[in-house]
Amino acid sequence: MNVSSKTGFLLMGFSDERKLQVLHAVLFLIIYLLAIMGNLLIVTIITLDHHLHSPMYYFLKHLSLLDLCFISVTVPQSIANSLMNNGFISLGQCMLQVFFFISLASSEVAILTVMSYDRYVAICRPLQYETIMDNLACKRAVIAVWMAGGLSGLIHTAVNFSIPLCGQRIIHQFFCDIPQMLKLACSYEFINEIAVAAFTTSTAFVCLIAIVFSYVQIFLTVMRVPSADGRTKVFSTCLPHLFVVSFFLSAAGFEFLRPPSDSLSAMDLTFSIAYTVIPPALNPVIYSLRNEAMKAALKKLLSKEEFSQRMVCFKAIIKF
Predict the structure, then answer these.
(1) Which one has a higher pLDDT value, 223 or 125?
(2) How many domains does the chain have?
C-alpha cells in the first residue's frame, strides 16, 4: 500500500499472514478486556471501601486510571487494524496517539515515583507520615503527575509533527512510535525532537534514581525490624511495586534508547508489548492478589449483604 501521497501512515507491526493477524487481534482483545476489568475493579474497590481511603491506595487508584487510559491508546487501534487487514492510520489519529501515549507514559513514571516516596515516608518516617502525606499534599502530587504528563505529551507532539518527512510513511510498529517516526525524518531535521527526547529520558532517569534511593532506604530500615512478620508485611507491599517499576522502565528504556531498525524483529515486538500492553494488565493482579487489604475489600464488595446495600442505595438514587 502506497501512503506517500496520503495524510497518514502505514503501521507494519505484525505479520501480513491473515491467520496471524486474527490471532493477534484475539490475544490483544483478551488482554485488553482483562486489563479494563482489573483496573476498573481496583478503582471501584478503593472508591467504595472507606478503609482504603489512604494515600497509598489513593495513588494506586490513579495508577489504575492511568493504566486504563494507557492501554486504550494503542491496543484498540491495533486490534481494528488487524481485523480489517489494514494498517493505515490517519495523521490526526497518529497525532492523538502520540500525545496521549507520551502523556500517559510520563504520568505513569511520575505516579510510580510518588508511590515510592509515599512508601519511603510511611516506613522510614512513620511519625511524620500524616503530616507529610496529608490530603492536600496527595491531591497536589496527583495534579502535578497529570499536568506533567500532559505537558510532556504536548511538547513531543508539537515537535515531532513539525519535522518534515521524506519517502514512504511506513512505521515498523503496531502504533505511532516516535523512534520509528524519527527514522522517516529528512536528514538532520529531527535534532529538536532528539533534544526533547533526551530531556524526557533524563527526567525518567531522575525518577528512577529517586525510586531506587527510596527503596534502598526502605530495605535498610526493614532489615532493622526485629519482627519477621513486620518485614514480610513491608516486603509484600513494596516488592510488587518495585517489580512493576523495573519491568516498565527497563522495557521502555530498551525501546526508546535502541536505534530504530528497518523492520520489526520478534525481540523488538516483545519489548514493545512489554511496556505498552503487559503492565496495565499485570498491575491489577500484582496489587490485588498480593495485597491482603485489597482482597478483604473485594470479598466485602462481593458479599451478599454489601451487594444488597449497594443496590438499595442505587435504587434510591435513581428514584430521586
Answers:
(1) 125
(2) 1
Structural domain contains residue 295: no
Does residue 3 fall inside a structural domain?
no
The domain that holds 109 is classified in CATH as: 1.20.1070.10
Amino acid at 55: P
- Estimate the crossing angle of helix 91-124 against helix 228-257, to 10 degrees: 150
Distance CA(320)–CA(301), nearest Å, equals 24
How would residue 189 be classed by pLDDT, with cut points 50, 70 and 90?
low
| Mean of pLDDT over the chain | 81
| Cα 8 to Cα 55: distance, rounded to the nearest angstrom | 43
Question: Where in the sequence is the domain holding 136, given as residue range(s)?
Answer: 8-289
CB 106 within 8 A of CB 54: no
In a domain, 175, yes or no: yes
In a domain, 22, yes or no: yes
Q: How confident is the model at residue 1 (pLDDT cuts 50, 70, 90)?
A: very low
Helix H segments across 91-134?
Answer: 91-124, 129-132
Hey, what's the cell of 73? 491508546
Please answer whether residues 284 and 315 qualify as being in contact, where contact means their C-beta atoms are separated by less than 8 angstroms.
no
Q: What is the pTM of this model?
A: 0.85
For 127-164, b where at least 16 C-beta lie within 10 A, e where not — what string?
Answer: eebeeebeeeebeebbeebbebbbebbebbbebbbebe
What is the spatial distance between Cα 55 and Cα 176, in angstroms, rounded to a whole number? 35
Q: Is 190 helix (H, G, I), strand (E, B) or coil?
A: coil
CA distance 291 to 268: 33
* Cβ–Cβ under 8 Å, residues 178 and 98: yes
